[in-house]
Fold each of these.
Amino acid sequence: MNWDDTGFLLSKNKYNENSLVSEIFTKDHGKVAGIIFGGTSRKIKNYLQIGNRVYLNFNSKSENRIGYFKIEIQQAFTPYYFDNKKKLSCISSAIHLVKVLTAESQKNTEVFDLIKKFYFILEKDNWIKEYVYWELELLKVLGYHLQFENLIEKKIVGRQVKYFSKSLTNKKIIPNFLIDQNNKLEDLPTLLNGLKLVGDYLDKTIFKPNNILHPISREHFISTLK
């Protein structure tokens, strides 16, 4: 089996003194694992940063054996954010969600396009809010559509529209931007509330039923915002 593709580096772990076992989300082959020989060498290790886009050649003797990558850098995104702790942490969170939520060797161009879209989001003034929308879109593409409109009740409080969850035991305030999908700049507590609600949904629907811990990278990203 031999093919060429383009993709985003999802993970890397040391395999031996000179090599890495990595996962790459590719355009035409989905999430694929393989060995990068010489991945720890000075020549290429600097651009093998999580989230960078690479061109790859994949070679494997059979579908049941791990293959090998030959890698060339296409676009290095992470160096632009080495001095921005919040955005660098956001990259780690987003890429790890793709890694955890996607299946092996299943092509999904919508997910691939969402990763490309993610880097445009980081350039916006309201990037945190757009990132919340990005997480919701990723869930929708993967079959976990969080339909807030079916879970909330609307009330007028002091001439303002407020949304609350319908739960009788744990009534929560739902940030308006999750329902109205507006372009208004939100304050940080509202954005953190939105991230928490999406996180609660991830835990309840995906992580806990599959005995998966909530990603540390996502928790760390949220902590950098506080």
Amino acid sequence: MLIAGVDEAGRGCVIGPLVISGYLIKEEKIPCLLELGVKDSKKLSSKKRKSIISKIMDLSENFMTIYLSPEQIDKVVKSKRKLHKLNRLEAKTMAKIIETLQPDKTFVDAADVNEVRFKKHIQECLAVKTIIIAKHKADEIFPVVSAASILAKVNRDEKIRILREKYGDFGSGYLSDKKTRLFLKDWIKNNMEYPICVRKSWKPAKRIKNEKGTSQTLLF
């Protein structure tokens, strides 16, 4: 039986893409993932992820990664139509990955607070038959989802590295990171608009931009 895991990296960040990866493996090889020390990517150091990623890929039958740009994310977040919100975009993207991998069974990390609803959204976009199990924290429960999580995280880290080379050190891209917050403030202070790598629809990003506008009004 062919088993797939699907997970994302970068959903909550304000800078960089949302990365969704799918990982396909024969069921009998799953214990090999455990032997590699595969677990939720957030619980592994960057060094550990990089050291096992090639071995994870060698074990696979196939894998796939899709990058959702800040522009794509802004478009759905700004939309007033409920069907075009971020959860639906993730579900649609996961369905595309599942169709490519064509597993017998798929485990996904549910982005929606309602696991059943998220599973339904994926199934609505599928043209192939597969058993889907959508669970919260699936990357902590199922090794095949952990593998997908690592794949997504390593790919996102590489994209962030490239963006830093272009725009300067903005930290992790998450608002919990002081470097990221300072980067946004400094950039909007010196420019009229954020660069394309920033999710402009994120409330903190809009707030920083609006604060600049308010300051200018007071000065003049």
Amino acid sequence: MKFNSLLTLANLSLLAMSTSCEKSTATDPTPAVSENNISGEWEWVKTVGGLTGNQTYTPSSTGVATKWVFKPDSTFQQYDTRQGVTQLTESTTFSIRSARSIYTGQPTQALRINRHVSAGSPSTLVIQPVIYIIEELGTELKIADNYADGFGQTYRRK
């Protein structure tokens, strides 16, 4: 009887140890991100970070309301509204890919936006990919620059 009790206790201990080491994906805040589930309109809420980590910018503090639009065909558009006037300020492409996060050192999902930047003169533009680590995607999109002293941005699904 004592032998069976010890065997049962040993089996229960092994079972507990083997299941306690499994990673649960039920609590992961961000499901797999694709061009389809990021699609839609996103309003900029705030940006926080910088050298001190405390620099905070909002539409009310900057006077600019920004809207990002992601389309299922991988088209990205940015609209900025200043003093009631809305302008299309960027029209380009985006993709979802894997990147090594500086925060965790592990591969994670990242948003790549192919920005147009000036190459010395206003008439010469080149594509400069900007990569953001995707921290959360749901009713809010939270992204972070993938470099030291970068910023984190929050957008709300419209």
Amino acid sequence: MSMGWNAVYAIFNGVMGIIYHSFWFVSMFAYYMVLSVMRFIVVSSKYKKLRRSESRMMKMIGGGMIFLAIVVSGIVCMGIAEKHNPKYHIIIMITIAAYTFYIVILAIISFVKAQKRKNPSMIMLRNISMACAIVALLSLERSMLGTFGDAGDRFSMTMTIISGAVAVLLVVVIGVSMLIQAGRVEEKILPDSK
């Protein structure tokens, strides 16, 4: 279900990108679509029950997270260089806020489930949910600064820089942790196969 909402929100961002001619929304469309594909890969492989491919999948998704962090850093830098956050209609702001609260709650639920079950698929889904929530919060902040504040003032620029740096750093940490966890999964698999 969360994969479906991710895809719907990605499409919403794509449509808003076209309507507002916004590079930010188009970039968020691409970001959420990549996360939806990652989530689909994890969910579809869960039914195949291939233990050897779990470590490979974790490496792929971890590397993808690091790539996405680099992309987000570029998006944030372009947003800072523009010195302009467009004002959005109140319904669009409510949609962004509702999705952000939904995805943050989902990330917390995924975190708790992964702590209880501790299997690789749950860990991957948890990390994808966390990366999604982090960037959703960044997007909500940027949209609120443009709609309810002055995006060109020093406070808004400082908030964008700090929030963007923290978001990029957290997504990189998620990606690196997945690469480390993939190594641990491989270590468990190798003794089992002997």
